[in-house]
Design brief:
The complex is a heterodimer of chains A (192) and B (235). Chain A is built from ten helices and no strands. Chain A is mostly helical and 192 residues long. Chain B is of the alpha+beta class and 235 residues long. In chain B, 41% of the residues lie in helices and 19% in strands. Classes of the chains: A mainly alpha (192), B alpha+beta (235).
Chain lengths: 192, 235
C-alpha cells in the first residue's frame, strides 16, 4: 500500500521528484504519494465548507487537480503544506462565492455595518482600511478577528463562517461577529 | 480584498521563516496573515470538523481513486506528471484468472500482442475515417485544436503565438496566477499573436512574475478550443 511506503520522504522531496522527468515511474510514484498523503486533509477541509459528502469529494478533487497542475511551478522555498493550503482554501472560498454570490459590490465592508452605522461611516471605514486592520489586530480576540476577516475581506457568508470555525452556539458566527463589530466600533471611536 | 491577497508562494515562504524574522514580523500584524496561519494549522492537523476518522478515511480513499483516474485520463496532463495506477484499484481486482482464461487457458503472449495491434489499427482507421466524414461546419466546433507556442522574445517584451482555429472569429488570452485563479486576460484578439510589452503589461500582470497563459478560440461568445497552458514570464 502507498501509505506503507509513505515514510521518510518530505513533501518537498516528493514534489521535487514529481517535477523531475515527469511521466517517469519515479515521478508518478512521488505524485501518488503526495496525493495519498494529502487527500484526507483536503477532503476534511472541503467537508468543513460544504458539509456534504459527494459535493465535498468533488470540491476536494478539484483542489488536488489544481495542485497537480500548479506543481511544476512549486518551488521548495517554503512549506509545501502552506502552499497546498492556500490553493485548497482559495478554491473552497471561490466555490462558496459561486454558490452564494453577494449582491452588492461593496458587500465586503458590510461586516462592519450595524443599524446605527450610516453610509458615510462605511465609506470612511473603507478609506481607513489600514487603520481598521490595525485596530482589529490590536483589540479583537483571534477568533473575532478571524470571523471578521472572513466576513469582510473574504466575503464569506455568516453560515459558512459558522461551519468553517465550528461555532456550535445557537447564533453561530452571528453572535461572534456582533461582538467583534461592537468592540471594533468602540475601539475606532476611542481612537478618533 | 482579492487584489492584495497573499499568494500561495508568499504564504508558504513566510510560514517557513522563523517568527522573529523581520519579514515574518512585518506580517504578524496582518489579520489576513494571522487568519490564514490559524486556518493552515488546522488544515495541517485536520483539527476541528465533525467527520469521524472512518468516514474521512473512506472518503479519502475514494478521492485518491478519483484523482488518479482523472490524472491518468489526462485531465491534469498540463502539469506534465502522471500518477501511478492506484494500488487500491489494483488490489480491488478479482484474484485469479478471468472467465475467458478459465475456459480457454492463458493465451500465448504473441497472440495477445497480435490482438492488441489489431485492435489499435482498427480503432485508428475508424477514428481517422470518422474525422474525415464530420462536416466541416460542425467538426470545427467539436474537434478544434489550438496550440500555444513557447513565448518568443521581441525587442519590446515577449510575443505569444498560437495556431489558427477554423471557425474562430477571435481569441482570448487568459493568464493564471499561482493558485490557478485568473489574474488577467486579453479579450477579442483578432490575430493569432499578442505582444506583452515591457511597461505596458495588461492589468494584473507583473514584470518578472511567472504566470500560466492559455488561449481560447472564440466563435461569438462560445469557446470552441482551449490551448494547453504555458508558463510566461512577462518582461
Amino acid at each position: 500500500m502507498l501509505r506503507e511506503q509513505d515514510s521518510g520522504r518530505s513533501d518537498d522531496e516528493l514534489a521535487a521528484a514529481s517535477q523531475r522527468d515527469p511521466g517517469s515511474p519515479a515521478a508518478q510514484q512521488a505524485l501518488s504519494l503526495l496525493i495519498s498523503r494529502w487527500s484526507e486533509r483536503t477532503y476534511r477541509w472541503a467537508y468543513r465548507y460544504l458539509g456534504e459528502r459527494e459535493q465535498s469529494l468533488d470540491l476536494a478533487q478539484d483542489c488536488l487537480l489544481q495542485m497537480i497542475q500548479a506543481l511544476p511551478r512549486y518551488r521548495a522555498s517554503g512549506r509545501f503544506s502552506a502552499w497546498l493550503f492556500m490553493i485548497v482554501h482559495n478554491r473552497c472560498l471561490d466555490e462558496l462565492r459561486r454558490r452564494r454570490p453577494l449582491p452588492e459590490p461593496e458587500a465586503g465592508m458590510d461586516a462592519f455595518e450595524t443599524a446605527e452605522t450610516g453610509p458615510e461611516e462605511i465609506v470612511d471605514l473603507a478609506i481607513e482600511r489600514e487603520r481598521v486592520l490595525a485596530v482589529m489586530n490590536a483589540r479583537l480576540e483571534p477568533e473575532e478577528r478571524l470571523a471578521l476577516w472572513l466576513r469582510a475581506y473574504e466575503e464569506t457568508s455568516v453560515e459558512d463562517i459558522t461551519r468553517l470555525l465550528n461555532l456550535d452556539g445557537a447564533s453561530g458566527a452571528r453572535g461572534l461577529l456582533q461582538t467583534a463589530r461592537r468592540k471594533l466600533r468602540a475601539a475606532l471611536s476611542e481612537e478618533s | 480584498m482579492n487584489d492584495d491577497r497573499l499568494s500561495a508562494e508568499d504564504f508558504a515562504r513566510l510560514t517557513s521563516l522563523p517568527e522573529d524574522h523581520p519579514e515574518r514580523r512585518r506580517w504578524a500584524g496582518s489579520p489576513e496573515f494571522e487568519a490564514r496561519l490559524r486556518l493552515w494549522r488546522e488544515f495541517e492537523t485536520s483539527a476541528g470538523g465533525s467527520l469521524s476518522a472512518e468516514d474521512a478515511g473512506l472518503a479519502a480513499r475514494e478521492l485518491e481513486r478519483r484523482v488518479e483516474s482523472e490524472v491518468r485520463g489526462g485531465a491534469a496532463g498540463r502539469g506534465g506528471a502522471v500518477a501511478a495506477p492506484s494500488r487500491d484499484a489494483a488490489a480491488a481486482r478479482p484474484a485469479g484468472r478471468s472467465w475467458l482464461q478459465r475456459i480457454f487457458g492463458a493465451p500465448p503472449r504473441a497472440a495477445v500482442a497480435f490482438a492488441t495491434i489489431l485492435v489499435v489499427a482498427v480503432a485508428t482507421t475508424w477514428f481517422l475515417a470518422r474525422e474525415r466524414t464530420v462536416p466541416a461546419e460542425r467538426g470545427t466546433v467539436e474537434h478544434a485544436a489550438i496550440e500555444l507556442m513557447a513565448p518568443r522574445p521581441t525587442a519590446n517584451g515577449i510575443e505569444l503565438d498560437w495556431t489558427r482555429v477554423a471557425g474562430a472569429d477571435g481569441y482570448r488570452v487568459v493568464f493564471y496566477g499561482a493558485e490557478l485563479t485568473e489574474v488577467a486576460r486579453i479579450d477579442r484578439v483578432s490575430t493569432t499573436h499578442v505582444e506583452l510589452r515591457s511597461g505596458a503589461l495588461p492589468q494584473g500582470l507583473v514584470a518578472h512574475r511567472d504566470v500560466m497563459a492559455e488561449v481560447q478560440a472564440l466563435h461569438g461568445e462560445d469557446v470552441i478550443a482551449t490551448s494547453k497552458s504555458r508558463m510566461v514570464s512577462p518582461f
